[in-house]
Design brief:
4-stranded antiparallel β-sheet, 2 helices, Alpha-Beta Plaits, alpha+beta, 85 residues
Length: 85
């Protein structure tokens, strides 16, 4: 899953234009848009991140790829991982 922050995406028309642009590059991609956080999430079928970002740019917006945080597993044991309850 790729995630882009698009701060100049402000309304439903923007979301529609971005979705249309992404689908033109990768018709089978799954696109999710959250207007409140200005996030576009794409699960590409064929395109790479650069191609998708270019499509958003060509639609007139300014995408910034957001790296997803990888959760680290909690340590076994007590609250801080130091004791072994």
């Amino acid at each position: 899953m790729l995630s882009f922050e698009v701060n100049d995406m402000t309304c439903g028309h923007c979301a529609s234009a971005i979705t249309k642009a992404l689908k033109a590059v990768d018709p089978d991609a799954r696109v999710g848009i959250d207007l409140n956080s200005h996030r576009v999430q794409v699960k590409p079928a064929a395109a790479n991140a650069a191609q998708l970002a270019d499509a958003i740019r060509e639609a007139g917006y300014s995408p910034v790829e957001v790296q997803s945080a990888v959760a680290t597993p909690a340590k076994a044991g007590g609250c801080c991982g130091c004791c072994s309850r």
